[in-house]
Structures are given as structure tokens and as C-alpha cells.
Amino acid sequence: MAAYIEFVPLRNARCSMPSWEEFSDPLSFIGRIRPIAEKTGICKIPPPKDWAAALCLRCQKLLLHPSGTAPQLEAMTRVKLDFLDQLGKFWELQGSALRIPVVDGKLLGVYALSKVGVQGQVVLQINNIRISILQCLLRQD
User: Fold this and answer.
1) HSE-up of 119 (CA within 13 Å, CB side)?
2) How many domains are contained in the chain?
3) pLDDT value of residue 139
4) What is the structure's pLDDT at 124?
5) How many CB atoms lie within 10 A of CB 18?
6) What distance in Å separates the CA atoms of residue 43 and residue 33, rounded to the nearest whole number?
7) CA distances from 120 to 87, 109, 116, 127 (A)
8) How distant, in Å, are the alpha carbons of 5, 82, 98 from that of 87?
9) Is residue 89 part of a domain?
10) What residues make up the domain containing 115?
11) Per-residue pLDDT in tens (0 to 9) along the chain, 141 residues
């Protein structure tokens, strides 16, 4: 059996309350109290009572508007990843590697572009039909 080690209770951590002068130069204050704080391993340094942080967020007024619920966002991510996987496999079968284009230093959203292409395909088909009708009419002359 392993030998038991005698339990030594921890000492209370020191709470150093700096004055305004000490608080204006925190690194020198920490350097001064360091030998005392090293004995316990931790030291609490609360700011002066009338001190206010330069950036203070009011959590009660902070409202976050999520773009969707977690399952919806996860589902869209899965759809995009599946699309990119299928696209990569397609180009691999063609004997070429998939390279996603970079526009203005950012990767092009290939999935979003494909959706725009599918929606625009109807317009392209209509325009192609019009062009083919015009070509047929011109050939008859």
C-alpha cells in the first residue's frame, strides 16, 4: 500500500488593497507584493472602490441575435461540407485537384455560388431557348 501523506491545510490567500498611486503602476505593485504572494501561490488584488474600467459591458442591455438555432446552423454546415466533399471527389475522378478560388484574400463560397447558379440556370435556359428560336428563324430566311 502507498504511504499516506499528511494533509497540510492551505493558508488563506493574501488580499492586497492598493491605493490609487499603487494602482496607477500595477507592475511595480505586483513586484512589491510578489515575495508575500509566492508563499500562498495566489493573491487577490481588488481595484480601488471608485475605479471604473475603461470598457464596461452591461450584460443586461447586451442582446445577441443568433442567425439560427444550433441544429439549423449545424445542418447547413453539414450540407456545405457534403457539397464540397462531392465536388472534390468529382474533380478527383476527372484527374484534377479541386482548388477553391480566392477573391480579395477570402475563399470563394462555392456552395453559395452553386445555389445562385441553380437559381440562375432557369434564366439561362429561357435565354438559350430564345436564342435557339432566333437562330431557327434566321436559318429559314
Assistant:
1) 6
2) 2
3) 52
4) 56
5) 19
6) 9
7) 19, 16, 6, 11
8) 62, 9, 8
9) no
10) 100-141
11) 567 788 877 777 788 888 888 888 889 998 998 988 888 888 888 888 888 777 766 777 777 777 777 777 778 888 888 988 998 898 889 888 877 777 788 887 778 777 765 555 555 555 555 555 545 544 544
**All 3 cell numbers of residue 32?**
512589491
CA angle 59, 63, 66 (to 5 degrees): 135
Residue 23 lies in a domain: yes
**Grid cell listed for 33:** 507584493
Check residue 108 and give left, alpha or beta (phi > 0: left; psi -120 to 50: alpha).
beta
Q: Which of 70, 3, 20, 14 is nearest to 43 (CA)?
A: 14
Task: Select from 29, 44, 59 the last residue of a domain.
Answer: 44
- Residue 84 grid cell: 464540397
| Rg over CA atoms, the chain | 34
> Helices 110-140 & 70-93, crossing angle to 10 degrees?
60
At which residue does the C-alpha cell 432566333 appear?
134
Is residue 31 in some structural domain?
Answer: yes
What is this structure's pTM?
0.37
Is residue 30 in a domain? yes
User: Residue ranges of the alpha helices (H) in 25-69?
Assistant: 26-40
